[in-house]
Design brief:
This protein has helices at residues 3-22, 47-50, 57-65, 84-93, 110-115, 126-138, 140-146, and strands at 29-33, 39-44, 75-80, 97-102, 119-122. It is an alpha/beta fold. It has a 5-stranded mixed sheet with strand order 2-1-3-4-5, with helices on both faces. A hairpin with a 5-residue loop joins strand 1 and strand 2. Helix 6 crosses helix 7. The model has no long low-confidence stretch (mean pLDDT 95).
Amino acid sequence: MDQAQARTWLGTAVAEARAGLAEGGIPIGAALYGADGTLLGRGHNRRVQDGDPSAHAETAAFRAAGRQRSYLGTTMVTTLSPCWFCSGLVRQFGISRVVIGEAHTFHGGHDWLAEHGVEIVLLDDAECAGLMRDFVRDHPGLWHEDIGAVPSA
């Protein structure tokens, strides 16, 4: 995939991440693009806002896209490496490519996706990394809850 196009599409996901942060949520955004480059859906993590542990950015973008007859050739763009839940969504529906803003804060299932034929474009974007670094520093408890690292009581 062309890096310039990947970065342009990442801008949509970053805008969603910023919107989620402004709402008091976790700054992770995503967008789903069609094979022809059409924006099908966009969304951000709403776990905090909706009290829904499944309201991840990728699932929000996927739901906003509505039903597609096929996901062949589509691209999921996300500001952070997708967790196992969202990686499963990509595999389940045959999304062809995942563009990732950064994977230092959280290294999700993108290696597994690559092993199963999904094209991975990892951008190492400084803005995405900064958003997450600041969020983790300012809200460590919420971050650990989001990634499932909260010790059981």
